[in-house]
Every structure is written in C-alpha cells, then in structure tokens.
Design brief:
Elements lengths: L2 E9 L3 E4 H8 L3 H7 L4 E4 L6 H10 L4 H6 E7 L10 H9 L6 E5 L5 H15 L4 E10 L12 E11 L4 E3 L4 E4 L5 E2 L8 E2 L1 H23 L8 E4 L4 H12 L3 H13 L2 H6 L6 H12 L8 E8 L3 E9 L11 H6 L2 E2 L2 H9 L20 E7 L2 E6 L1
Parallel strand pairs: 2-15, 4-5, 4-6, 12-13
Antiparallel strand pairs: 1-7, 1-8, 2-3, 6-7, 8-14, 9-14, 10-11, 13-14, 16-17
The structure holds acetoacetyl-coenzyme A.
The site of acetoacetyl-coenzyme A has 27 residues, from helix 2, helix 7 and helix 8.
Length: about 375
C-alpha cells in the first residue's frame, strides 16, 4: 500500500521583524544574520496566538468537510506546549469539528516530535487504509532578548494530511533513527525559554547527520546521488546547508545539484525563522512551491533533528500531479504580514497573559485572526474560531 502526504498547509502569525533592523539594534553587522545564518526575517506571535491557533489555522487551510469526517487521529508535535497535561490536539480537534471518534495526542521530543507523528500516522494508515491522520507541527521559538539564538526565533505551524494513495508524496520504508542522551538544547519546567549550548548543538546536529547517513547508506544501499533534493531540519538556514555539505562533500556534482534545490527549500524558512518541529516540513513546502526542477517520480531525502537528541533520515517520492495541491500565493501572503519595529517586537516578546485570583485573564487584546485565544476563565484557555 502507498501511504504518505496527501495535503500540506502552513500558518504563520501576522507580525514580522526584519533581521536587518534587529542587527542594527543589537549592534551586529547585518551580514552576520543575512549571510552568516542565512536568515532574513522572523515571524512574531502576539499572546493571542499559540500552538493551538497556529496549528488549527494551518489545518483549516487544507481540510474539507469530508476530510474532517474521515480523520480518526490528530497528532501535534511541539516543544512549546501550552499545557502540561491536555494535548493541543484536543483543542484543535474541537476547533476544527473533527469526527468525534478520533484519537488526539501531543508528541514531544524537541524539533523531532512531528516526524515521530508522521511515522505513527503511516503505521495507523497501514492498519486502517480508509482513515486519514492529521499531523501538525506547531511551535513558537523564543530564546530571549539579545541572546545568541534571538535572530533564529520564529513562529508557525505546518499541517499534513496523511492518507493511503496520497496526492503529494509517498513515504518509503527506509527510516533510520539515532538517539543520543545529550544536553544541547532543553527547557526545564521552571524555565520560560530554552537553555541552549549553541556551538555544541550545531556540532551534534551535523555529527548525528553524518553518522546516521552512514548507517542509512549501509542499510538501504542508497547514495545521495539517488535523490532529487534534500530537506533538513532548519534551525537557521546556514545550519541546514552545512549539514548537506557534510554528507555531500565527496560527490561535487551531486552537492552542486542538491545545493541549488536547498536554496529553493529555504525560501520560506528565511522569512519565518525556526519553527522547531515544523521547520523541516516548511522546507518541504518551500521546495515544492519554489522549485521548477522537480518532477513526479523524484525522491526526496529528509533529515529530522530534535535536540536532546533524536534524529531520523527517511525519504519519499513525488506523486504525479503533486503541483495541484500547492499554494502559489504563499510568498505574497508572507509579504503581507505587519512589519514590527524592534521596540514593538520587544514589547510583544515580554507580553504575558495575566490572570486574577479566580484564574480569569485580565489583559487579552482583540485578535482578528481566524483562530485566536480570546479569554482564560478559571485557568481554562478559551479559543474562538471565526
Ligand atoms: N558577515 C558574514 N558572516 C558573519 C559575520 C559577518 N559580519 N559575522 C559572523 N558571521 C558568520 C560566522 O562566521 C558564522 O558562520 P560559520 O558558522 O559558517 O563560521 C555565523 O555567522 C554565525 O556566527 P557565530 O557562530 O559567531 O554566531 P553566534 O555564536 O552568535 O550564534 C548559534 C550561533 C550559537 C548557532 C546561535 O544562533 C544559537 O544559539 N542558535 C540556537 C541553537 C541552534 O539553532 N542550534 C542548531 C542546532 S540544534 C537544532 O537544530 C535544534 C533546534 O532547532 C534548536
């Protein structure tokens, strides 16, 4: 049975900060962000937007009523969860009006969680070919004002519908994972922002890739030259490029070809920033919507990396007519976001929902987005769908 990605959607909050402005404010050469990190802008979320609203928005963009009736599992991968117990998928299930007889869960392992969701979705469809699984990667990446990670921040969600006989990509059965118990990026319960050993994390990202790729080649017999493109986890675009170069350095012609595709695969990531679990899938979306070089039958290699660390290499094949499932106006929508000054961004960064002694929110602003957090009552988050 062929199983894979039938539809893919994306949502980002409506605010954006230009990294040239951030560089100026931080007294850093703008080329450090533009060329050193290969990033141009970052998406910024107000307090009325979170992983639930962004995830619901990304899914709403692709689902029909028929899909909603057939979905029997929703998996949200995230590392910026809004509740220690209740899964974001349950809120999204309610907001979207999904079939009540569905399973709704949240998966956590840093930026890797949604890849685990995709694997689980595939196994589920193998057992229930008529059902559909909604996999959502939704995150808000915040490192801290003037921190090393600040220019790599971002916010957004990618939603994928996983089905039998998919219209975009069939996933192969060639997955190879690796787990390493390391502390390169983590967020203790008492901390608002992650702790990160930045340099160590970049070394681990690449070392996990080279060692897992060696194992992947041994098990599958596939070479880099067999792939039309590669999508990697993009914490910032330069990191992905370095990963590709690390495994491609012995085949210059293939590396040149895959580097051209790589630049098409980071068009959106450069404008959105790191969206943790969704970054690799945003890169896929960017590749599919910005490359003229791909065709049905092409194989794409994926490298998913979540600090801590778990990584996975896997691949998929583009299906005839995949172009019909895409959105050709995405760049236009990204360009319509409201630009922020650094002062505005800093104000939004520090904004926090305050609750009174009864657990009621006292400072939630109005948000005109299709999905928004509109209140907290008795410590319960209340969302609105337009
Ligand atoms: N012009 C051009 N390039 C410049 C420049 C200038 N004026 N100034 C500096 N650069 C280049 C540097 O040479 C460097 O490039 P190379 O790595 O290719 O040499 C690049 O800009 C970045 O400079 P630094 O390494 O000095 O930057 P930094 O130390 O201030 O920050 C970082 C880098 C530590 C990775 C930081 O961005 C960070 O902490 N990020 C968060 C952690 C992260 O993303 N880790 C990635 C792997 S972990 C993961 O993938 C999971 C996840 O999502 C978090």
């Amino acid at each position: 049975m062929k199983i894979g990605i039938d539809k893919i959607g994306f949502a980002a909050p409506g605010y954006v900060l230009d990294l040239a402005d951030l560089a100026l404010a931080r007294q850093v050469d703008p080329n450090k962000y533009k060329l050193g990190l290969l990033q141009s802008q970052m998406a910024v979320a107000p307090i009325t937007q979170d992983i639930v609203t962004l995830g619901a928005q990304a899914a709403q963009a692709i689902l029909t009523n028929e899909d909603k009736a057939q979905i029997d599992m929703i998996i949200v991968g995230t590392e910026s969860s809004i509740d220690q117990s209740k899964a974001a998928a349950v809120f999204i299930h309610g907001l979207l009006g999904i079939n009540p007889f569905a399973r709704s869960i949240e998966i956590k392992e840093a930026c890797y969680g949604a890849t685990a969701g995709l694997v689980l979705a595939k196994s589920h469809i193998a057992q229930s070919p008529n059902s559909k699984v909604l996999v959502i990667a939704s995150d808000i990446a915040k490192y801290g004002i003037a921190s090393a990670g600040e220019p790599t921040q971002g916010a957004g969600a990618v939603a994928m519908l996983v089905t039998a006989d998919p219209a975009i990509m069939v996933l192969h059965d060639d997955n190879v994972c690796q787990t390493r118990d390391i502390m390169d990026f983590w967020r203790p319960n008492e901390d608002k922002y992650p702790r990160v050993d930045g340099r160590f994390s970049t070394v681990q990202y690449t070392d996990c890739l080279t060692t897992t790729f060696a194992e992947y080649q041994k098990r599958t017999g596939k070479k880099l030259a067999d792939f039309a493109a590669m999508c990697l986890h993009i914490p910032f675009s330069k990191q992905g490029l370095k990963g590709l170069q690390a495994i491609g350095k012995e085949d210059e012609a293939t590396l040149d070809r895959l580097t051209a595709r790589f630049h098409e695969a980071i068009v959106y990531n450069k404008l959105v920033g790191n969206i943790y679990t969704g970054s690799i899938f945003l890169s896929l979306l960017s590749l599919l919507e910005n490359s003229q070089a791909l065709k049905a039958g092409d194989d794409i290699l994926f490298y998913s990396y979540g600090s801590g660390a778990v990584c996975e290499l896997f691949s998929g094949r583009l299906v005839e007519g995949y172009q019909n499932q895409l959105d050709n106006n995405r760049l236009e929508s990204l360009n319509q976001r409201t630009p922020l000054t650094v002062e505005d961004y800093e104000a939004l960064f520090f904004e926090e929902i305050q609750v009174d002694e009864t657990g009621k929110a006292i400072n939630i602003p109005t948000d005109e987005a299709d999905f928004a957090l509109i209140d907290i009552q008795d410590h319960k988050r209340i969302y609105r769908k337009k």
